[in-house]
Design brief:
Radius of gyration: 19 Å
Structural class: alpha/beta
Largest sheet: 6 strands, mixed
Distance between the termini: 24 Å
CATH topology: Rossmann fold
Number of helices: 11
Bound molecules: adenosine-5'-triphosphate, magnesium ion
Order of helices and strands: EEEHEEHEHHHHEHEHEEHHH
């Protein structure tokens, strides 16, 4: 059971010429738990990616605490290494996150070796094939040999998901994982994430602008506005009975999620 908690976390960026800087995240608290997906929604600039960067330890909180299993996260050495295997990320742009000069096998072999899940060449190959099969890139042998530019956007994002799973994390952060993909393949990738989430009992933070998919794919929704969480609750409740003015506007602006999603059963 791994839980990841944000406790009263704030992040102030220093800005040149602005004495007080910019408060990108303002006293935010929430918890990620195994088997649960939490959606983080909010307009551009509201602080969503800053929360992802703080969760990944790419930025330090100005105040507040990040706790893994109720213990403050260590920022160096073995503690940081084990944190990095527990908490993995899928980025918005799969092309930018893959190295164009290496084949897909290389991208997956590296974290497998690094985190000690495969050693010999044969073990690595088998583990790479398993990962590719799990993200539905089959036959895996064929995809393993390709380089990123030989894949479609959706296939690349599946590779990025496989890479994130390689260290066997318990928490997955997905920051706008489908917003750069063609609309026609977005749901396929989100369904895959939902399936893996259940198979692995992952705790997922799904960052998005899209209220309809936030509702469909999440248990809880956090609504962020200017650095603060202005609303937090079960997904249906937040959408059907929004309390905050900003959530109401978001819900009103979203295309009717019932209409868009009613043909989709949860996988
Ligand atoms: N490294 C940084 N230095 C200074 N300011 C930053 C830095 N990173 C982000 N910001 C500022 O912090 C605020 C929040 O940015 P953030 O990227 O978290 O927003 P977001 O909600 O992810 O937006 P989007 O939906 O456009 O991705 C913005 O005003 C942004 O300009
Ligand atoms: Mg962002």
């Amino acid at each position: 059971m791994t839980t990841l908690e944000f406790r009263n976390v704030s992040k102030r960026y220093r800005l040149r010429g602005v004495k007080e800087g910019l408060l990108a995240v303002d006293d935010v608290s929430f918890r990620l738990e195994p088997g649960k997906t939490v959606a983080l929604v909010g307009q551009s600039g509201s602080g969503k990616s800053t929360i992802a960067k703080l969760l990944l330890q790419l930025e330090r909180p100005t105040s507040g605490q990040i706790l893994l299993d109720d213990k403050p996260v260590e920022r160096r050495g073995r503690g940081l290494r084990s944190y990095r295997s527990e908490v993995q990320m899928v980025f918005q742009d799969p092309f930018a996150s893959l190295n164009p000069y290496h084949d897909i096998a290389h991208h997956l072999a590296r974290p497998l070796r690094l985190h000690g899940h495969a050693q010999s060449a044969a073990e690595v190959e088998q583990a790479v094939h398993e990962l590719l099969t799990r993200v539905r890139l089959t036959p895996p042998g064929e995809y393993a040999e390709k380089r990123p530019h030989e894949l479609s956007g959706g296939q690349r994002q599946r590779v990025a998901i496989a890479r994130a799973l390689a260290p066997r994390p318990s928490i997955l952060i997905a920051d706008e994982p489908v917003s750069m993909l063609d609309v026609s393949i977005r749901l396929g990738v989100l369904n895959l994430l939902a399936l893996l989430q259940r198979q692995e009992n992952l705790g997922v933070l799904y960052i998005t602008h899209d209220l309809a998919t936030a509702r469909h794919f999440s248990d809880e929704i956090l609504v962020m506005y200017k650095g603060r969480i202005v609303e937090h609750g079960p997904a249906d409740e937040v959408i059907l009975n929004p309390q905050h003015e900003y959530t109401r506007r978001l819900a009103a602006a979203a295309p009717n999620p019932e209409e868009r999603l009613k043909h989709l059963a949860r996988p």
